[in-house]
Amino acid sequence: MRLRLHSYWRSTASYRVRIALNLKGVDYDTRTVDLRTGAQRDPAFLEFNPEGLVPVLEADGRTLTQSLAILEWLDEEAPQPPLLPRDPFARAQVRAVADIICCDIHPLNNLRVQTWLRDVNGAPEGQLTAWTHEWIGRGFAAVEPRLEAGDWCFADAPGLADCCLVPQIYSAVRFGVDLSPFPKIRRVADAAAGHPAFIAAHPDRQPDADRPAP
């Protein structure tokens, strides 16, 4: 199967998909969509995703959007290693953490919301920073007690929740959010920092990064 990921290096939603593809050992190529220049509003890109967002995954000419939908499709298409546990209750617990991150935290802090708050609502940078800290902090406070005691969110190997949490940690660090109240979340960050799939997916490792890592 030929896969192409339409991505932006600092998009946390794209980052989730890169991690999952790497964990699965699936080959793919990347096409950059520069969100800062408005490439997501180009008519050619809107044919892939009328919402004008990344990521978009092409799979043999078919397109998938929304990172969680892509992750679940990928887990069914390439079952090993699994991103979700077999037990239905355990799967629901993992999905709950993923939903907190992808539905409650991320949408309030992504580029288009920040741009609207600044350009339309006139929010100064200090208010934007406070907004970001507030919603990431609240979300992480909800995630922290749900995590298990090992290196990863659940079980002894990375899965769906880790694919979602690690990019959100990257965003939190980027915006200067204090992570000291969240030892389990910091533990996952430490584990990811030493895992090849997460290292390769890191924004600074992407070819379109401002300063790509060597």
Tally of DSSP helical segments:
9
CATH topology of the largest domain: Glutathione S-transferase Yfyf (Class Pi), Chain A, domain 2
Low-confidence stretches: none
> Which second-level CATH architecture of the largest domain applies?
Up-down Bundle
**Helical coverage, percent range:** 40-55%
Q: How many strands?
A: 4
Strand coverage percent: 5-15%
Order of helices and strands: EHEHEEHHHHHHH
As laid out across the biggest beta sheet, the strand order is: 2-1-3-4
The major pleated sheet works out as: 4 strands, mixed
Q: Identify the CATH class of the largest domain.
A: Mainly Alpha
Number of domains: 2
- Helix/strand-derived category reads alpha+beta
Distance from N terminus to C terminus (CA atoms, Å) equals: 29 Å
Rounded to an integer in angstroms, the radius of gyration calculated over CA atoms is 17 Å
* Shape estimate: globular
- The averaged pLDDT comes out at 94
Give a brief rundown of this model.
52% of the residues lie in helices and 8% in strands. The protein is built from nine helices and four strands, in the order βαβαββααααααα. A four-stranded mixed β-sheet has the order 2-1-3-4, covered by helices on one side.
